[in-house]
Amino acid sequence: QLSTRVVQTEKPSEAASVIVETAYQMSKGDAGGIILLSKDGHIEAQMQIDRNGLNPQAAHPAALIQQALEARQTLIFAGPNDTTRVCIPLQTPRRQYGALWIDIEEEDWSNTRFTDNMHTLANQAAIALERSLLLTETRQQAQEIKEAYLQLENTYDQTLGALSSALDARDRETEGHSLRVARVACLLGRKMGLDDEQAKIMERGAILHDIGKIGISDSILLKPGPLTPEEWALMRQHPDIGARIIENIPFLKEALPVIRYHQERWNGSGYPIGLIGTDIPLMARIFAVVDAFDALTNERPYRKPISHPEAFAYLREQASILFDPQVVETFIQTMQENPPQA
């Protein structure tokens, strides 16, 4: 019980109270006390107990405690009112955690069973303190690792944003497109049942959906007029090129479905594979709708943008043809509930 209670404490003062109270009750002494030390030897907590209860401010036999700690063994001195004062270091092979002292009747300390019990209690208290400290250190390390991971994740996302901006700078027609669709795709993903982690994957895939265009010649990518069949064949390779670019990056591996399959269409008319219906991964189906809407409602050199209601009507016309009908309806509802900021 002592070990469990000590490990469950959150502050050194709480652990000190648990140990000294247990020792006092077990010894039936006149008074007792405890000091707990930090790793560098400073007092972290102290507590005294007598018939009036616990007292964190009472004085301790500092000289006796210091001698016991230096000797690393139990010391016995005459206590007040014809009692014997016993001071037991709380220590393990790893370090000293403090000292426990008790004022008891002299005949009690002459009882071998009593002394064995008190030493057992002190040893168990030291082990419990060590476990508690290790648990606290483990929690702190886990929190530090979590914070470091979040910082690293944030750095990754900033890098992806910079890469997206670099891609947009190459193709002025779609400037800002990747970041816009990423925000909307993340929102729609949650509406479609994705959890926070999946929605984040969706967002990253959306940011990088056109990264494969790095491998497409400027003569094709920036061509002002219609592409020839041969040029279209090359352009349609960009999802596979993008997938090959990131498939060996563990951080981005789960975003592959968006990058590789965002040009697939519900009726099988898309590319690069010609997947049909629900064979297309959900994230890719979600992104396809968001991507189409953004293309329709933003200006391109070859056409003017259309209004949101006109774009909604087009998506409904193409539901079950080019797009997942459920995704289309959820998208329209989401956009009506969360209209984009001007």
The overall average pLDDT, rounded, is 88
Label the overall shape. rod-shaped
Helix content: 55-70%
Gap from first CA to last CA: 63 Å
Describe this structure in words.
This protein is an alpha+beta fold and 342 residues long. It has 14 helices and 6 strands. It has a 6-stranded antiparallel sheet, sandwiched between helices. α6 (177-191) runs antiparallel to α7 (196-207). The protein is rod-shaped, with a radius of gyration of 35 Å. The mean pLDDT is 88.
Q: Which descriptors would you attach to this protein?
A:
alpha+beta; rod-shaped; six-stranded antiparallel β-sheet; single chain; 11% strand; 342 residues; 14 helices
Briefly summarize what is shown.
The chain is an alpha+beta fold and 342 residues long.
List the helices and strands and how they pair.
Elements: H1 2-8, H2 12-27, E1 31-37, E2 43-50, E3 53-55, H3 62-71, E4 75-78, E5 84-91, E6 96-104, H4 106-109, H5 112-170, H6 177-191, H7 196-207, H8 218-221, H9 229-235, H10 238-246, H11 256-261, H12 282-297, H13 308-318, H14 325-337
Antiparallel strand pairs: 1-2, 1-6, 2-3, 4-5, 5-6
Helix pairs in contact: 1-2, 1-5, 2-5, 6-7, 6-12, 12-13, 13-14
